[in-house]
Amino acid sequence: MRRYVLLLVFALAAALPPAFVQGQQILGQVSVSIPMGSPCSNTSDMVFATYNNDSHNDGWAWSGGAGGVQGANALHYNTNGSTNAVVAANEVFGFDIGSTVDSLNAQFGAGYWTIANPTLTFTSSYSIQRSSRFAQGAGGFAIYWAANNNWFQSSTVQSDNPVYATSQAGLLPWAGQTALVGSGYFTNSGSGAVNLSYNLSLDPNFVNAILAASAANGSNQSVTLYLMATDSDIGMFIYTGGPGDSHPEPTPTLSFEVVTPSSNSNSVPAISPTGFAIAALALAGVFALIGARRKVFDRAD
């Protein structure tokens, strides 16, 4: 009988979520990037503080092979050493994560996984840019999650774009809900392209927005990150990989680890559907062995 008790214990241990028997466990790694060469009107948007009627005629916002974050005093540097002022701007990314979440739910079961160690990575440049719309300068910036995914780049209709804001309070009326999930400092020290990576916090609203995403869920199939200048001199160029862009640099990417939910000492963790199946098969095997042994004893008698 002791042997069957041990088999039963092992079966139940295998059926329980890994978080219960081992603590939080890594199930995989996810990276969602802005597609290279795709129309990027709803994946990246450089929103200006005022209508930009420079030589590019960008209007209220620009979306193309690159974007940027630039403060009110940022400058564009020309190759001859001269400078010219630019219009302040923030950069907004939309990551189409719904189908990825659907796949994770199908694989692990909704509610049986969560995220850990989220990061935002993108490629910038320390080099002088040919386009006069882009500034160059050191400075800080904040990374916000925004609940509003109903936006797309428009040079002519301001309200189609995310709002240009200089504070979280100013961002909130448009976003509906926000969370400061990261920050960074662009050093502008070096030459050529540079890959930058920033850790993001596990703000509950940000995490829940990812977990609730779905390809069949309309505006909730994406997650929006809003990069806001916090220094007036910052000029940070960002490759976004729009149509016709031939740059080999990686496009902005949201990454995170897929993990089992943290165990809660005040509650009993649920067993996943897969766990139920394992437990059922294991119990069936144990009872079959017990039954077989009884038959042998009965025949012996």
Structure description:
The strands form 4 sheets. A 6-stranded antiparallel β-sheet has the order 3-2-7-12-9-10. It is globular. It folds into 2 domains: 2-10 and 271-300; 24-259, no CATH class. Helix 1 (2-15) runs antiparallel to helix 6 (273-300). Residues 1-22, 264-272 and 292-301 have low confidence and may be disordered. Strand 5 and strand 6 (83-85) form a beta hairpin. It is built from 6 helices and 14 strands. It is of the alpha+beta class and 301 residues long. Helices cover 25% and strands 32% of the residues.
Helix-strand layout with pairing:
Blueprint: H1 2-15, H2 18-22, E1 26-33, E2 44-52, E3 59-62, E4 66-70, E5 75-77, E6 83-85, E7 89-96, H3 98-108, E8 114-125, E9 139-146, H4 168-175, E10 178-186, E11 193-199, H5 204-211, E12 222-229, E13 235-239, E14 253-259, H6 273-300
Antiparallel strand pairs: 1-14, 2-3, 2-7, 4-13, 5-6, 7-12, 8-11, 8-14, 9-10, 9-12
Note the gap between the termini.
Answer: 19 Å
Shape: globular
- Mean of pLDDT: 84
**Total beta strand runs:** 14
User: What does the main sheet amount to?
Assistant: 6 strands, antiparallel
Count up the domains.
2
Helix content: 10-25%
Query: Total number of helical segments?
Result: 6
Strand order of the largest sheet: 3-2-7-12-9-10
**DSSP strand (E) fraction?**
25-35%
- Secondary-structure-based class equals alpha+beta
Radius of gyration: 26 Å
The H-and-E topology, N to C, reads as HHEEEEEEEHEEHEEHEEEH
Poorly predicted runs are 1-22, 264-272, 292-301
